[in-house]
Design brief:
The structure holds 2 protein chains of 2 kinds. Chain A is α/β, with parallel strands linked by helices. Helix content of chain A is about 40%, strand content about 15%. By secondary structure, chain B is mostly loops. The chains are: A alpha/beta, B little secondary structure. Chains A and B meet through strand 3, helix 3, helix 4, strand 6 and strand 7 of A and strand 1 and helix 1 of B. Strand 3 of chain A pairs antiparallel with strand 1 of chain B.
Chain lengths: ~450, ~45
């Protein structure tokens, strides 16, 4: 399967099953488009009619070049090895990542929050230290041969339970040598409670820090308010700038959310970059399709225009002090994930789980609070094997909508939670989300060749 | 003059034999948390 498109003056050809990417001229673009559907003599005649100024020998040379790439496994590559592999990849029972819901409460009242002010449709709660330690033990004891283990301190707002977070980091570190494991800790925070001590600790211990900022002040403050109705922009921006300034190791991401209110969201990305925040991510809002702020199919043309504009802005700023990175445009085409990972996606419900303040396990943070998807707890482990098996089966070959999709080995089948919330099944898709994802991949590749 | 410039030759087929160590970061844990894709992650064994 191949995918061809034209963007920003470039003709791109993606060979889905090998991962090869080519930039071609118009003649080669047209020849590749018809190569598998016409005999070579008919294709030559068609090309000669379309390109009368080009000599026959040169047309033949293009077809030879295409044939050589096909023989080398860089064009029209079949998916032969993947279908069998897909059914074997997911390691039932081996967990390598936990999302720790250390606080089901929040000091902001963001109206678009899928966690409903951090409570996930349940009671307010903080994770006790004993539950957190048990969750770390569960991860250490159920991670098989995996050496790298990931823990994201999430909420609600995790800084509302900061003392426990720090003790859990210390406990995790104390167990690494005995188990032969290495923890990678992440903190995802709204920033309201960041202070010097938080900055120093996260710089020392957190592999990644995810900081929530939506961009321009009027955009950010519309949703991200305190319980008193005050916007949080003025509080968090100086804190984020200071944390970023003092970060000497690990990653950080300034992570924004856009909604139907700011379909010109590139303005928000540029605003954040101009604040000196350089590692940026901007995601479309997650919510019911009847939510007035949810992205609709009719918004896609404007969103696509925005993603293309972002390519041009980033290319223009490249190599200057105004340069920044955008998470979805950060592709490693040469050293990206292997086929195993690309076939099965994020691993929610199998190698990746979320744990609530009371130790209950869910497939990921977006399933928390949905009783159907309660999987067990950190004492008994995964006891709801029906849910685990359902999610283990979610490969790109199990989703009918992925069957003919060129992007399936870029997304790994997409987000099971989004699919569930939009289509009613973890084996479905979020069709609008898929279109945005495909556009981002097209843009990301073009950015690499500009 | 070549009319086809290969940006990356792709190694996915080869990775069927060499991949699967599982040491790479969980994609959703990084920056997105909502719009998961796997391609943004580097391969841990090729670092």
């Amino acid at each position: 399967m191949i995918h061809q498109y034209k963007l920003a003056g470039r003709n791109v050809v993606i060979d889905t099953n090998s991962g090869a990417v080519h930039v071609v001229d118009d003649l080669a673009y047209d020849a590749i488009a018809r190569y598998e559907s016409l005999p070579s003599d008919a294709l030559l005649r068609e090309l000669a009619a379309g390109y009368p100024e080009i000599e026959r020998a040169e047309l033949s040379a293009v077809l030879e070049e295409i044939a050589a790439l096909k023989a080398a496994g860089q064009l029209f590559t079949p998916d032969d090895p993947y279908r069998d592999l897909a059914g074997q990849v997911k390691r039932r029972g081996e967990v390598k990542a936990l999302c720790f819901h250390v606080a089901h409460t929040c000091n902001l009242t963001c109206a678009y929050c899928f966690a409903r002010e951090g409570q996930y449709h349940g009671d307010r709660a903080l994770m006790p230290l004993a539950v957190g330690k048990q969750a770390l033990d569960f991860l250490l004891q159920n991670s098989g041969e995996r050496q790298n283990l990931e823990v994201d301190f999430f909420g609600g707002e995790p800084l509302l339970n900061w003392a426990v977070v720090k003790e859990l980091v210390a406990y995790g570190r104390s167990q690494e040598a005995a188990y032969g494991k290495r923890f990678r800790f992440t903190l995802t925070t709204n920033g309201m409670l960041i202070d010097d001590e938080v900055i120093d600790f996260t710089n020392r211990e957190m592999e990644n820090v995810v900081l929530s900022l939506d961009g321009r002040q009027e955009v950010h403050d519309y949703f991200r308010k305190t319980s008193g109705g005050q916007g949080s922009y003025d509080v968090v921006v100086p804190k984020f700038q200071e944390l970023v300034r003092r970060r000497t190791r690990g990653n950080y991401y300034i992570r924004g959310t856009y909604t139907r209110r700011n379909l010109d969201f590139v303005e928000d990305i540029l605003h954040m970059a101009d604040l000196g925040l350089k590692e940026l991510s901007m995601e479309s809002v997650v919510g019911p399709s009847d939510d007035p702020f949810a992205i609709r199919a009719e918004d896609l043309p404007q969103i696509f225009e925005q993603y293309e504009r972002l390519v041009n802005e980033m290319a223009t700023r490249r190599g200057t002090e105004r340069a920044f990175t955008f998470y979805h445009y950060t592709l490693n085409l040469d050293h990206g994930p292997c086929a195993h990972k690309r076939l099965v996606g994020c691993g929610s419900g199998t190698e990746y789980l979320a744990v609530t303040p009371w130790g209950e396990l869910f497939p990921c943070h977006q399933f928390v609070g949905d009783a159907i998807y309660s999987m067990g707890d950190v004492w008994q482990g995964v006891t709801n094997t029906t849910v685990r098996d359902e999610l283990a089966a979610c490969t790109v070959y199990q989703r009918p909508a992925c069957e003919d999709c060129w992007a399936r080995l870029f997304c790994g089948g997409g987000c099971a939670a989004n699919a569930y919330h939009v289509s009613g099944s973890v084996g479905g898709i979020d069709a609008v989300g898929c279109e945005m994802f495909k556009k981002r991949i097209e843009c990301a590749i073009v950015l690499q060749v500009l | 003059m070549t009319r086809i410039q290969t940006i990356t030759p792709g190694n996915l087929q080869e990775s069927v034999k060499t991949g699967g160590c599982g040491e790479c970061p969980t994609s959703c844990q990084s920056a997105c948390k909502t719009s998961c894709g796997v391609i943004n992650q580097p391969c841990e064994s090729q670092k």
